[in-house]
Specification:
CATH superfamily of the largest domain: Ribosomal protein L6
Helix content: 10-25%
CATH topology of the largest domain: Outer Surface Protein A, domain 3
Strand content: 25-35%
CATH architecture of the largest domain: Alpha-Beta Complex
Order of helices and strands: EEEEEEHEEEEEEHEH
CATH class of the largest domain: Alpha Beta
Distance between the termini: 67 Å
Number of domains: 2
Structural class: alpha+beta
Length: 191
């Protein structure tokens, strides 16, 4: 029962969920809210807002906020989501797959990086970000993987930006499963 004039704590949808830490994953939290997570896939370090409370008890990470002020509510959910991604990244890792669609479009492994042939007069060399691995699965498919979700997503977006899908023919670099809506073109407008 809520008494008139008394504020009730709104239940957080994301921030209150506990984060289970898998066996083999080490989590250390410093006084400055610097969290280091180390696991089989790598090691990640992230600094969080100093007033957000991060605790590790019995293999479970929990995030709490000091008050109900709006900025703390935002940091509460953000901190929990970032911590969850860190634990998932060092445990399983993240990956994104890109497809090259178009006649003559292909990708080749070049050391740790990749070389794209996507209809330009020159080849485009891609160097991976630190902690990101580029793997050529087939001449038209490239796998971007790593333990940091932000870096994997940024690397995939950078590669896609080299030649985004054309909206008339569908040629270009796209994420696997991405649906490109094709425009009808001027021939359809004449009918």
């Amino acid at each position: 029962m809520v008494v008139a004039g008394e504020k009730q704590r709104v239940v957080a949808r994301v921030g209150d969920k506990p984060i289970p830490v898998a066996p083999g994953v080490e989590v250390s939290i410093s006084e400055e809210n610097l969290v280091r997570v180390k696991g089989p896939k790598g090691e990640l370090t992230q600094a969080f807002h100093p007033e957000i409370i991060i605790s590790l008890q019995d293999g479970v990470l929990r995030v709490d906020r000091p008050s109900e002020q709006r900025p703390f509510k935002a940091f509460h959910g953000l901190t929990r989501a970032l911590l969850s991604n860190m634990v998932a990244g060092v445990t399983d890792g993240f990956e994104k797959t890109l497809d090259l669609v178009g006649t003559g479009y292909r990708v080749q492994q070049a050391g740790e990086g990749a070389t794209l042939q996507v209809g330009f007069s020159h080849n485009v060399d891609i160097d991976p970000l630190e902690g990101v691995v580029l793997t050529v699965q087939s001449p038209t498919r490239l796998l971007v993987s790593g333990c940091d979700k932000q870096r994997v997503g940024q690397m995939a977006a950078t590669i896609r930006a080299v030649k985004p899908p054309d909206h008339y023919k569908g040629k270009g670099i796209r994420y696997t499963g991405e649906v490109v809506r094709l425009k009808p073109g001027k021939a359809a407008a004449r009918k």
